[in-house]
């Protein structure tokens, strides 16, 4: 119930206000929404991703890198310069002269030594355009203001006995706000992505985290969607309570299945099924 400061280890069941992002994601004794999403695809996919000792090293895609960078840019701007750098503006010798051109070549040659993720100037321009869209939306701007950012929750699921974790983007007194970058923020596309990426599970898990760790109810789950291409439209979606209740049943059922797989060490892939035509084509 009490808040714990980060001390190079996670002592479990509690609220961690200063836990680094890497420490949260690298904890191997608790399960997140993204891990349950992989397990939902199939237990074998989960085993292959997280348990197989011979699994190939997984490199983040550029889209994943940019998604994380934008989150830091918006939610933790004080950390952005420590983690990311922008490629120098390209110059030509004939335009700037030898001294400035040599300085430019030196910067380019030493970018990799900074140990920072390098963003192109075009990518940074896109971030700025997305930021302007977010802040230009009054409701979104209000939702981004004065909340608790990137606070981590760890708690034990009573039915399965497994430890679960959640890390909301922004937490207000009675609502949770998460930023989603997407190519299309329209309602129909968002609804499909909410189901595909189980955003409603994310809300249900955090709702349980607040109950378990703080003994209170969180009533509203909000996703702010911002498009990654022009016109960079911002949309705000409230996930209704029925979806959260259904998600709670689903994710807790998957935790019970995960517990059985962990105990038996049996990780099945896709089952034998009969496949027909979808209703919309008949």
Helix content: 40-55%
The number of strands is 11
Overall shape: it is globular
From the N-terminal CA to the C-terminal CA, the straight-line distance is 54 Å
For the record, the count of structural domains works out to 1
Radius of gyration: 22 Å
Q: What is the H-and-E element order?
A: EEHHHHHEHHEHHEEEEEHHEEH
- Which strand order do you get reading across the main beta sheet? 5-8-9-10-11
The major pleated sheet works out as:
5 strands, mixed
Number of helices: 12
CATH class: Alpha Beta
Determine the strand fraction and express it as a percent band: 15-25%
| CATH second-level architecture | Alpha-Beta Complex
* CATH topology (fold) name: Lambda Exonuclease, Chain A
**Helix-and-strand structural type:** alpha/beta
Q: Can you describe this structure?
A:
This protein has 282 residues and is an alpha/beta fold. It has a single domain (11-80, 120-263), classed as Alpha-Beta Complex (Lambda Exonuclease, Chain A). The protein is 47% helix and 16% strand. It has twelve helices and eleven strands. The chain has helices spanning 21-26, 33-41, 43-50, 62-75, 77-83, 93-96, 98-109, 121-136, 138-144, 187-196, 199-214, 241-264; strands at 3-4, 14-16, 84-86, 117-119, 148-149, 152-156, 163-166, 170-171, 175-182, 220-227, 234-239. A five-stranded mixed beta sheet has the order 5-8-9-10-11, with helices on both faces. The longest helix is centred in the last third of the chain and has 24 residues, at 241-264. The protein is globular.
